[in-house]
Amino acid sequence: MTTHRIMCHNLHMFPYKIQTRQPLSVNAIDARYDFANAMLKFVDEDDIDVGNILFSDEAYFNLDDFVNKQNWRIWGTENPHVAAPSSLYSPKVMVSPRFPLKE
Protein backbone atom coordinates (compact mmCIF):
# COMPACT_ATOMS: atom_id res chain seq x y z
CA MET A 1 0.00 0.00 0.00
CA THR A 2 1.42 3.42 -0.95
CA THR A 3 1.81 6.39 1.35
CA HIS A 4 -0.55 8.36 -0.88
CA ARG A 5 -3.27 5.73 -0.56
CA ILE A 6 -2.86 5.47 3.23
CA MET A 7 -3.09 9.24 3.65
CA CYS A 8 -6.14 9.56 1.40
CA HIS A 9 -8.18 6.48 2.26
CA ASN A 10 -7.21 5.69 5.84
CA LEU A 11 -6.33 9.08 7.31
CA HIS A 12 -8.71 11.09 5.07
CA MET A 13 -5.99 13.62 4.29
CA PHE A 14 -5.58 15.29 0.91
CA PRO A 15 -2.80 17.31 -0.76
CA TYR A 16 -3.42 21.05 -1.02
CA LYS A 17 -1.36 23.40 -3.18
CA ILE A 18 0.30 26.42 -1.64
CA GLN A 19 -0.61 29.57 -3.55
CA THR A 20 1.90 32.37 -3.98
CA ARG A 21 0.75 35.94 -4.17
CA GLN A 22 2.07 39.37 -3.42
CA PRO A 23 1.16 40.82 -0.04
CA LEU A 24 -1.62 43.40 -0.43
CA SER A 25 -1.96 46.54 1.66
CA VAL A 26 -5.31 47.66 3.04
CA ASN A 27 -5.37 50.47 0.45
CA ALA A 28 -4.83 47.99 -2.39
CA ILE A 29 -7.66 45.77 -1.14
CA ASP A 30 -9.98 48.79 -0.91
CA ALA A 31 -8.97 49.91 -4.43
CA ARG A 32 -9.75 46.44 -5.86
CA TYR A 33 -13.13 46.42 -4.10
CA ASP A 34 -13.99 49.91 -5.42
CA PHE A 35 -12.91 48.95 -8.97
CA ALA A 36 -15.03 45.77 -8.93
CA ASN A 37 -18.09 47.68 -7.72
CA ALA A 38 -17.59 50.38 -10.38
CA MET A 39 -17.34 47.74 -13.13
CA LEU A 40 -20.48 45.98 -11.88
CA LYS A 41 -22.31 49.31 -11.96
CA PHE A 42 -21.17 49.93 -15.56
CA VAL A 43 -22.34 46.45 -16.60
CA ASP A 44 -25.71 46.86 -14.84
CA GLU A 45 -26.31 50.22 -16.55
CA ASP A 46 -25.29 48.80 -19.97
CA ASP A 47 -22.37 51.24 -20.24
CA ILE A 48 -20.11 48.26 -20.95
CA ASP A 49 -21.07 45.51 -23.41
CA VAL A 50 -19.71 42.33 -21.84
CA GLY A 51 -19.78 40.63 -25.24
CA ASN A 52 -17.09 43.04 -26.52
CA ILE A 53 -14.57 42.30 -23.78
CA LEU A 54 -11.49 40.44 -24.99
CA PHE A 55 -9.57 38.43 -22.44
CA SER A 56 -5.98 37.60 -23.30
CA ASP A 57 -3.60 35.22 -21.62
CA GLU A 58 -0.32 36.24 -20.11
CA ALA A 59 1.96 34.92 -17.42
CA TYR A 60 4.82 36.31 -15.38
CA PHE A 61 7.77 34.09 -14.55
CA ASN A 62 9.78 35.28 -11.56
CA LEU A 63 13.51 34.91 -12.01
CA ASP A 64 14.42 34.74 -8.33
CA ASP A 65 11.65 32.51 -6.94
CA PHE A 66 11.21 28.79 -7.10
CA VAL A 67 9.18 28.20 -10.28
CA ASN A 68 8.39 24.48 -10.27
CA LYS A 69 5.78 24.09 -7.54
CA GLN A 70 4.43 20.79 -8.86
CA ASN A 71 5.43 18.86 -5.73
CA TRP A 72 4.83 21.72 -3.29
CA ARG A 73 1.89 20.41 -1.25
CA ILE A 74 0.51 20.51 2.28
CA TRP A 75 -1.32 17.41 3.44
CA GLY A 76 -4.29 17.88 5.76
CA THR A 77 -7.87 16.91 6.52
CA GLU A 78 -9.11 20.33 5.40
CA ASN A 79 -7.83 23.09 3.15
CA PRO A 80 -5.50 25.31 5.21
CA HIS A 81 -5.80 28.22 2.69
CA VAL A 82 -2.05 28.85 2.90
CA ALA A 83 -0.49 31.57 0.78
CA ALA A 84 3.25 32.13 0.62
CA PRO A 85 4.17 35.79 0.11
CA SER A 86 6.43 36.59 -2.82
CA SER A 87 8.40 39.76 -3.42
CA LEU A 88 6.58 42.47 -5.33
CA TYR A 89 9.44 43.88 -7.40
CA SER A 90 11.44 40.77 -8.19
CA PRO A 91 12.95 40.47 -11.69
CA LYS A 92 10.52 38.69 -13.99
CA VAL A 93 9.72 37.92 -17.59
CA MET A 94 6.22 38.28 -19.03
CA VAL A 95 5.01 35.86 -21.71
CA SER A 96 1.93 37.02 -23.60
CA PRO A 97 0.87 34.80 -26.51
CA ARG A 98 -1.09 36.40 -29.34
CA PHE A 99 -3.13 34.44 -31.85
CA PRO A 100 -4.80 35.95 -34.91
CA LEU A 101 -8.56 35.57 -35.13
CA LYS A 102 -8.43 35.02 -38.89
CA GLU A 103 -5.78 33.42 -41.05
TrEMBL record:
Highest taxon above the source species: Eukaryota
Tell me one GO molecular function of this protein: nucleic acid binding
Q: What is this protein called?
A: Uncharacterized protein
